[in-house]
Amino acid sequence: MADISVKVNGMTFPNPFVLGSGPPGTNAKVINRSFDLGWGGIVCKTVSLDNSKVHNTVPRYARLKSRTDKTVIGFENIELISDRPFEAWLDDLASCKQKHPDKILIASVMEEYNKDAWCEIIERTQETGVDAFELNFSCPHGLPERKMGMAMGENPDIVGEVTGWCMEVSKIPVWAKMTPNITNITVPARAALDAGAHGISAINTILSVCGINLKTLRPMPTVEGYTVPGGYSGQAVKPIALRHVMELARMFPDVPVSGMGGVETAADAAEFILLGSSTVQVCTGAMLRGYELIEELCTGLSDFLDKHDFSSVEDCIGHSLPYFTTHADLVDRQRTAKRANAGRANRDNMWKGNIAAETKQLAADE
Fold this sequence. Notes:
This protein is α/β, with parallel strands linked by helices. It folds into 2 domains: 6-323, TIM Barrel (Alpha-Beta Barrel); 325-366. It is 41% helix and 17% strand. It has 12 helices and 16 strands. The strands form 4 sheets. It has an 8-stranded parallel β-barrel, surrounded by 8 helices. A 4-stranded antiparallel beta sheet has the order 5-6-14-11, with no helix packed on it. Strand 9, helix 6 (186-194) and strand 10 (199-202) form a beta-alpha-beta unit. Helix 3 (115-126) packs across helix 5, helix 5 packs parallel to helix 6 and helix 8 (266-274) crosses helix 10.
């Protein structure tokens, strides 16, 4: 059987499947249960220093369903980062690492545009024993007035500056999580890497309006008759996520990418790995299908690697990247192929003509 473990920034993941930051990692209970089920790593729900500024609403989710069988193909949320006290998170992270010392626990953190706040959250969180940080520069909704999330991540200068603050005090690997709500995702990624980040996570959710309730004529999810654009996830975003991951992996071939966006099956994960992902994060897929999905993901990925004669996940990473090129090159390749095909056809016709002539001559000689 193929080896499905991966080593990233010195961290050994038993498998490349990581529960992405969000409801699947909202407290110690669910984190510990997920580790017990076999997830290779977990990114906790994003935490900040002052939870008193975080106020979630109800409802905060909207679903886009297939027109045929009504399955959920897209998922919008306007949920904010964790509203639990920072001190409670410190206790949870420490207890999770104590119970699962060999598992990879990554802390997702977000703060305002303030060096002291970023340095404090890094210093205090790493004391819990977490293995790495994921800097949330990408949440597309909520708290823009505090210049947090995407409001920070869409500005490469700020991304570089804040990453630099974190690198001054972090003693463990740091990944920067990118927003897809930008023209060129490699620009803020380069800023983070130039400032010292060890890896990139991509993508966060896509800013969206899931739909309008045609009975009430109000946009969804509707809170007291009103709403805001939210983060779109689920299988419908996978093609967009794959494109961003491909661009990052081609631009930064030596940088580990943790890819995500619409992963629900082992086949989905294989596509991300083929396009350069070292690890694959799953969030909405686990919410819709259950955390037990990990067994199916591991078995399916192992079967895929065996089928294509890959001895390990690492042998598979980026395998499909060389097959991306320019449109002009595609035209040249097709023109060359047509000429080659025409040449073969001419040679075949000549051969057939020669055989026919020889056969005719043999018949005449007889």
